[in-house]
Amino acid sequence: MTTQADSRTRAAHVTGWGRYAPRQVLTNADLERMVDTSDEWIRTRTGIRERRVAAADETTASMGAVAGLRAIHTAGLEPDDIDLIVLATLTPDYWMPSTAALVKEAIGNTRASAFDVMAACSGFVYALATAQAYIGSGLSKHALVIGSELLTRFLDYTDRSTCILFGDGAGAIVLSASDEPGGALGIELTTDPQGAYMIWIPAGGSKAPPSASTIGRGEHFLRMEGRETYRFATKTMATTALESIRRSGLTADDVGLFIPHQANIRIVEAVAKGLNLPMDRIYVNLDRYGNTSAASVPIALAEAVNEGRVQIGDNVTLVAFGAGFTSGAVTIRWTADPTRGRTADDAVQPEDVHVRLPVDWDSVDPIPEALAELMAQPGSVDVPLDDVVPGEPEPVRQPIGR
Ligand code: UT7
Q: Active site includes 28?
């Protein structure tokens, strides 16, 4: 699908941005104690050095609410100015209600319509395109667009090909209607179902409802064909970005900063090559956060703007790819004062945000026990891997040390 802002519709400007990264850090050295991997392999094959892990009392909704409130603060708005909340995630708090509904309550908003978008790692760009369409058609004036993911609860910490890649976090923007030119310009969205089983979570849906055997087989964890996904990403990212730029009436030379999905530095470098761009026009923070799926682009956008990498009048292209296979790109003409976001982290603390729990809620411990233990006790620990993946594989008999 492609869209192009035309003169009859209202423009959707980015007026607010914010991000939230949980405090706990999981380093490559930590992972060396869990699976047969090395810091050197992870750094050279992916560029990742560390990622964040949500605390036991954090959820996709709570992280999304913090990032969302920070974006609202940056925009200089009150939560109730927001009339639309679109949240992209593949790790919702529950199958229903939507995580966006929980965020709406947590941020103290009473008037927005709220729903989730699921397009995996491309989800934030799809959500942004959705909000832009609402604004363009007059259905929304101030939309909060969030990407929030808690992937560490969906990872198999015995599978070294996936557990080293992903981390937790949230990012958000406020899109505001305006009669002035600028904001989100050309958008390109693609979906290729040939890749449907290249990254997926096999069980838990209507095809394979949860059961003791789906849990025993580890079918609730993310699975991925890394090489196929890599091939798709390198093939698609540059073309998707270029189509969005073309639909904006621009060329790649007109774009000041590219913000790609933060999956793998080798993929990012291939995109730079495909676009014939030096790496200093491409924003990278995957070394610190790993792949945070739908949260990666908005976290990177907020950090890039706060670091002064984006100025008023600049064109910025966001581009992502992910399960589905999906891809999406949007080119934005930046119109907001970039310094506005710098106080947002201090203004909104995670302790101030509460997602209401159901009455008599008695959940099991949400963090895999082995991961919790590892994070609580830096240094050598004997990790009982059977606690991470119930039923498989055989418990490790030897202490795992550095
Ligand atoms: O948001 C979308 C999410 N997905 C992605 O972005 C993933 C895209 N794919 C990738 O980033 C890369 O394919 C990976 C990082 C996942 C893997 O890198 P690769 O260079 O494609 O490695 P590979 O799968 O070809 O594996 C090469 C070797 C294998 O060993 P053998 O068969 O050559 O002996 C793997 O078993 O590396 C081994 N390997 C590891 N070794 C140490 C795989 N994972 C690890 C590991 N540590 N963590």
A: no
Q: Nearest residue CA, atom 43 of ligand 1?
A: 161
Whether residue 131 lies inside any domain: the answer is: yes
Long-range CB pairs of 371-378 (<8 Å, 24+ gap) are: 371/26, 371/53, 371/152, 371/157, 372/56, 374/30, 374/33, 374/34, 375/24, 375/26, 375/30, 375/53, 378/30
Residues of the domain holding 80: 7-336
Tell me how many domains the chain contains: 1
**Residue 134 domain-assigned?**
yes
Tell me, in angstroms, the distance from the centre of ligand 1 to residue 226's CA: 6
DSSP-derived pairing of the beta strands 142-150 and 168-178: antiparallel
Determine, yes or no, domain membership for 11: yes
Instruction: Return the CATH number at 261.
Output: 3.40.47.10
Name the residue of 26, 31, 45, 236 whose CB sits within 8 Å of the most ligand 1 atoms, as the mutation to test its pocket.
45
Token pair for 305: 């703007």
The per-residue pLDDT string of the chain (402 residues; one tens digit each, 9 = 90 and over) reads: 555 555 457 999 999 999 999 999 999 999 999 999 999 999 999 999 999 999 999 999 999 999 999 999 999 999 999 999 999 999 999 999 999 999 999 999 999 999 999 999 999 999 999 999 999 999 999 999 999 999 999 999 999 999 999 999 999 999 999 999 999 999 999 999 999 999 999 999 999 999 999 999 999 999 999 999 999 999 999 999 999 999 999 999 999 999 999 999 999 999 999 899 999 999 999 999 999 999 999 999 999 999 999 999 999 999 999 999 999 999 999 999 999 999 999 999 999 999 998 877 766 667 777 777 777 776 554 544 444 443 333 433 443 333
Question: Is the minimum distance from the CB of 350 to ligand 1 under 6 angstroms?
Answer: no
Task: Decide if 110 is inside a domain.
Answer: yes
Tell the residue number behind the tokens 């091939």, with chain if given.
231
CB contact at 8 A, 281 and 258: yes
